[in-house]
What we know:
Layout: E1 7-10, E2 13-16, E3 20-23, E4 28-33, E5 43-44, E6 48-51, E7 67-69, H1 71-76, E8 87-90, E9 99-101, E10 110-111, E11 114-119, H2 126-134, H3 136-149, H4 156-160, E12 163-166, H5 169-207, E13 222-225, H6 226-229, E14 230-234, E15 248-251, H7 253-257, E16 263-265, E17 275-276, E18 294-297, E19 299-300, E20 309-313, E21 320-322, E22 326-331, H8 338-341, H9 348-357, E23 364-365, H10 368-371, E24 375-378, H11 381-419
Amino acid sequence: MEVKPGFKPTEVGIIPADWDAVLLFEVCDRISVGLATSVTQHYRNSGVPIIRNLNIKDGYFDGRDMLYITEQFAKANSSKAAKAQDVLTVHTGSNLGDTCVLPAKFDNCQTFTTLITTPQHSRLDPHYLCLHLSSFKGKREIARLQVGGGKGNLNTSDLKKYRVEIPSITEQRAIAAALSDVDALLSGLNRLIAKKRDLKQAAMQQLLTGQTRLPGFSGDWKMKRLGDLFKFSGGYSASRDQLSTEGQCYLHYGDIHGSSKTTIDTRADHQDIPKLNISLKRVSPNSLLMDGDVVFVDASEDDEGTSKHVVVVNKEGLPFIAGLHTIVAKAITTDLTHEYLRYCFQTAAIRLQFKFYAVGTKVSGISKTNIAKLTMPVPPAPEQTAIAAILSDIDAELSTLEARRDKTRALKQAMMQELMTGKTRLVIPEVTHA
Length: 434
C-alpha cells in the first residue's frame, strides 16, 4: 500500500506521521465498570444520582428521567463512582456502545451497567475519546470486540484492547471544539424531538380516551373487546439465520421490538424488510399480511415490550409473511378505520392491559386468547378520522425533525472522518529539520 509523505502505516491504518496509535489502557488512568447488579431496592426520590443506559445517548448525556440511590449505598460503593469528565460507555443492552462525557454537575455519582474510562489528561482529551468511540469506525471496533468476546456485552478487558489514534492534545481539543457546534445543533434537535414526542403522547392520551373531544363531536363511545374486532392467528416460524435479501418479505418479531415506528410499509420499507426464500404454498393465508392488519409480538424481555406492534401498510398486496413470535390481528368489522389503527393501541390503558395479561418470568408473553380479552373505547368513524388527522400532523412534524437530525448526524460523521484520520488538519504539524 502506497503511503503518502507525512503519513505512516499502523495497526489501525494510515495516520499522520506525528500521530500515535495506542491501546486505550495506555492513555487512561482508569478503565472500570460501574454497578453491575440490580440496585432497584436502593432507588429513592433524592440522594446520589444513578446513571442508567437511557441517560447515555450517542455522543451526549441526557439528564432527564434521573433516578437516585441512597447515600449509604453510594458510600459503600464509592470505588465505583464516576467523576466529571469521565467517559461513560454502555456495555450491555440495546444501546451498547453509546458513549458520553460525564458533565461536572454529576461528579462523583454512580452508574449502572456502564464502563467508566478516565483519560490521562496530558495525552487524551475526554471529548476527543468520546468522538472516537462514537464514530463509525469506533462503533465497528466495539462491535468487533464485543462479538469477538462472545459474551453479548463489552467488558473492561475488551475496552482495554480498543485502539485509538491520537494527535497532540492541542489538536485533539481543536477537533473536539470544531465538532462542538454540530453537537449543539444535534442536542437542540434531540430536545425538540423529545418535546414533540411528549406532545404526541399527551395528545393521544386525551384524544384516544375521549377525555378531550374535538369540536363538532359528542355522544358516548362504545367499549369493544378486541376479540369482537379482530380474528387472531399466529405467524410462520423461521429463525433469523434463515432470512436473507431474497424471497418473500418476512416480519420477524425482533424487527418490531427494534423499531420505533408503529407502521411498516411494504413499498417504502421494502429494502429494509428481511426476506424468506420460501414457497407461499407452505404459509397459511392467516399468516399473510394485508393492508390494515395489526401485528403484535407475543414475547418480550420486559413488560413494556409486550404491547409492541406494527400496523401493516400494503396497498399493493405484496406477499408479506408474519413471522416468529407474532400475533396477527385481522379486522372482522369496519369499526376501526385504517388511519385510527395506527394510534389506538398506544394508550396507557391498553399498555396496562397487556401488562396485566403478560405471563412469564425472564420473558413476558401474551397469548391469542388473552389479547382477545383486551378492551378499548371506539368512537364513530368520522371522529376517528379527525383524531388520526391531528396525530398524523404531529407525526409529519416529527419526521421532518428526525430527517434534519439524521442529516446533521451524517454531516458530523463526515467531519469526523476528515478530522480524525488526519485528512484535514486543524493544527499544522511542527516540521523538524535535521
